[in-house]
């Protein structure tokens, strides 16, 4: 393959950093972009460079954003007394596409995983506690994934909230066990939200 | 989705220019890159920008390359008397990965398609004729796809070569090696039958 064209080989290789893209689809993408969609390629290159440089974390909820505070945290029409705790920005998108939830989020950017050395400080528990106090939150909804680590994370956070006297609930109905939130359809997610139970 | 984060929305949208990437996988790619692989994202952005700007066509065979002449055309150890005509640079890669072919290529960058207004000048037939004369080619191998348009293109080129007195061959189409007869489509099977060779 290396006798082909160095820059094209480099592009095929670079595209493989995308999840789910093997050598064959990287080739297909390369030729499709170069043969038929240079403007799309230029635009992707420019947006990608800007995003990789500028996107950081929301100072209030930790989600990915290029602003100091994400548009959801900055929206005063959202219910400031309810926080839904999720593992990743993709989970926020999933809830927003459902459209039923009007409160705020807190994005852990991970989950507790002692085996990988991921502790409470890595998932922003201190910031969450601080935020819950500052807003006077009346309900914290735990929407971590229904995996062993997600459940342990939910349990740990519920313990912190118990100390603060903040009511905690856990989404329950509809999310299949072992499934990942971001792949659940929005109807199921709306159902799971409505059917949440007090976490004890 | 637009209340999320403008730059992130823009990246999700830009990734959809990649073939086979729908909204869900564009999201997954975006979060994976921004959460876990910033160096990969930076590298992809830079290679993509350079490739979209610098990659043009080989002056001898029309394939995609950032050089004036591609490494295959520039390699004097390749057999200069044989040219294999293919539709796209991906076909060149496929032959090169096979490893058996030692001649040159000519890449049409398409196929004749009167319905789409693609005529002989769009697929570089003049350059092919010129090149065949200049090299004193002794065999032209037609490896366009076995589609209606690919066959029509092969036929058109073979007529040009007949006028020049250059011998033309067509790669064999049939049951793939290791393939099972019962899973091969009937068109391929009919073709394989018609193209049968004496067994010795
Ligand atoms: Zn935020
Ligand atoms: Zn060439």
TrEMBL record, chains A, B:
Protein's UniProt keywords contain DNA-binding: no
ZnF (C4-type) intervals: 58-73
Alphabetical keyword list: DNA damage, DNA recombination, DNA repair, Metal-binding, Zinc, Zinc-finger
UniProt keyword annotation of Zinc-finger present: yes
Alphabetized GO MF terms: DNA binding; zinc ion binding
Lineage: superkingdom: Bacteria
Domain Toprim: residue ranges: 81-176
GO biological process: DNA recombination; DNA repair
Annotated function: May play a role in DNA repair. It seems to be involved in an RecBC-independent recombinational process of DNA repair. It may act with RecF and RecO.
PANTHER family the record matches: RECOMBINATION PROTEIN RECR
HAMAP family referenced in this protein's UniProt entry, alphabetically: RecR (MF_00017)
Family named by the database record: Belongs to the RecR family.
The name this protein goes by in its record: Recombination protein RecR
């Amino acid at each position: 393959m290396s006798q082909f064209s160095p820059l094209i080989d480099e592009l095929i290789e670079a595209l493989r950093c995308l999840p789910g893209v093997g050598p064959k689809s990287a080739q297909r993408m390369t030729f499709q972009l170069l043969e038929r969609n240079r403007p799309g390629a230029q635009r992707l290159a420019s947006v990608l460079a800007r995003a990789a440089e500028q996107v950081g974390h929301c100072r209030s909820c930790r989600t990915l954003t290029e602003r100091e505070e994400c548009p959801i945290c900055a929206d005063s029409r959202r219910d400031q007394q309810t926080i839904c705790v999720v593992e990743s920005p993709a989970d926020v998108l999933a809830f927003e596409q459902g459209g039923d939830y009007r409160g705020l989020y807190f994005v852990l950017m991970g989950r507790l995983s002692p085996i990988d050395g991921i502790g409470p400080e890595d998932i922003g528990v201190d910031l969450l506690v601080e935020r819950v106090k500052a807003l006077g939150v009346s309900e914290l909804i735990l929407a971590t994934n229904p995996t062993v680590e997600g459940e342990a994370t939910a349990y740990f956070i519920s313990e912190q909230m118990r100390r603060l006297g903040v009511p905690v609930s856990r989404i329950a109905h509809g999310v299949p066990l072992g499934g990942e939130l971001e792949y659940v359809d929005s109807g199921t997610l709306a159902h799971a939200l409505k059917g949440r139970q007090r976490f004890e």
